[in-house]
Amino acid sequence: MRTHSLALIGALAAFPAAGAPTFSLPVDCELGETCFIQNYVDHDETVGHRDHTCGPLSYDGHKGTDFALPTTDAMDAGVNVLASADGVVLGTRDGMIDKVIATKDIPKLNGKDCGNGVSIDHGDGWVSQYCHMKQGSVSVSQGDKIARGQVLGQIGLSGRTQFPHLHISIREGNRVVDPFAPDQFGICGGAQDTLWDDGIDYIGGGLIRVGFDVGVPKFASVKSGMAGRVRVPSQAKALVLFGYAFGSRPDDQMTLTITGPQGSVFDHTVTLEKTQAQYFRAGGKRTPMGGWPKGTYRGEVTITRDGARLDQEVITLKVE
Which of 115, 207, 211, 229 is nearest to 164 (CA)? Predict the structure, then answer.
């Protein structure tokens, strides 16, 4: 169960820029539940970076929007990439493997940073490009006529990427266009138009997933989806709750609370010190003498920002 604070999520009005096409969601997943937006177009033309709201969810020179999956397990299960608008396929690439790229291996990409992908011509100079798709999943070919919502392939981990996601970039001629603020590049904040046909909410950070385990898991296991249990024996060495999240800002707080059949087990709040694209925190207690009382345990992870709740998720665990 998850709840977002509406005070911290601003819905953008669906008013397209004059003469521009509109675009639909390019991924077959539920934003805020089974996928999330990790990065937006960089609106800072200097060395720094900022998204269209003046927030930090971007990086220097980023030219698209990143729709991310919570785990590589979700990628392996398969999440479709969808055409955002009608058009004709300009080109495709497939065959690149899905893996986290190491810095030392970036030159080996030989400019194929996009990985497996598709580009579509929407007419009048408008083009969309879809990157980092799963190896072997691209299902269209150059010259194909494409309808909005048509499956192009699946989200992957190919090219220059550190996590499974779809990067979609939109251009008008040689101009990079931010679909969240197409007419106000470099001017962040305030009311903005959008190219999305159904306004997409801006979420400035939140939980990716939460889970219970019998010790503090490795970050790689959290990201892959391997960490996390739904039941544990009463003699497990410890009871640990973790929260995996994105888009932290300095002074955000994450609270981890565990409640068992006999009441409170663990309650701790940690204050975050810096901006991070993705992060996780964990906490819990060692198993007491005689083991944990059997029954259902409740874990609650809450992120607060400026004193208001940003995100919250609840999970249960069976101790047997």
Answer: 115
The tens digit of pLDDT for each residue in 40-99 reads 999 988 888 999 998 999 999 999 999 999 999 999 999 999 999 999 999 999 999 999
Look up the pTM and report it. 0.89
In angstroms, rounded to a whole number, what is the distance separating the alpha carbons of residues 316 and 269? 19
Q: Does domain 206-319 have CATH number 2.60.40.2550?
A: yes
Q: Whole-angstrom Cα distance, residue 63 to residue 69?
A: 19
Could you tell me if residue 226 is left (phi over 0), alpha (psi between -120 and 50 degrees) or otherwise beta? alpha
Do 319 and 292 touch, CB atoms closer than 8 A? yes
Tokens 């590589």, residue located: 72
Q: Does domain 15-199 have CATH number 3.30.559.30?
A: no
* Domain extent listing, the chain: 15-199, 206-319
Do 15-199 and 206-319 come out as alike in CATH topology?
Answer: no
- The single-letter code of the amino acid at 45 is E
Give the list of residues 6+ apart from residue 154 with CB closer than 8 angstroms, or none. 75, 78, 79, 80, 81, 133, 134, 137
